[in-house]
Structures are given as structure tokens and as C-alpha cells.
Amino acid sequence: MQSTHCQTRVSNVIQQLQNVRIEKLEAGFLTISPENDEIEAEVIAAIEEAGYKVDGGNGSKTSTCSTGCCG
């Protein structure tokens, strides 16, 4: 999720979900405000379905690209 293209893809996926707000989205890092853990799990699943790997825990998760466009 290093390129603008990948950041836009992730942003678009998350914007389709309800009850979640993007706090910060930058190269390789996403901060969201989900209403609960279930919604957080939905966000992670949506990001992974879009072709990205989500790493991290305790509120800090990073995403890496598996689509090949970020190198």
C-alpha cells in the first residue's frame, strides 16, 4: 500500500463499509475508528479481499501490497 493507487483502492474499500471512519491513510499505514471489534474485523477482511496483507495488533496495523503494483 505504498503507491497512491493502492492507497486509493484501500480507501474506496473502507468507504463502502458502515460505522468506520478513516483517521489517517498514508504509505503502508492506515488508522481507522471502528465502532467495535466486529467492524474492525470487517475492515481487515475487506482490505485482505482487495489484495493486501494486514499486519500488527493492539490498534496498530500495517498493510502490505500483494497486488504487485507497489514493488
TrEMBL record:
The organism of origin for this protein: Sphingobacterium thalpophilum
Protein name: Copper chaperone
Lineage: superkingdom: Bacteria
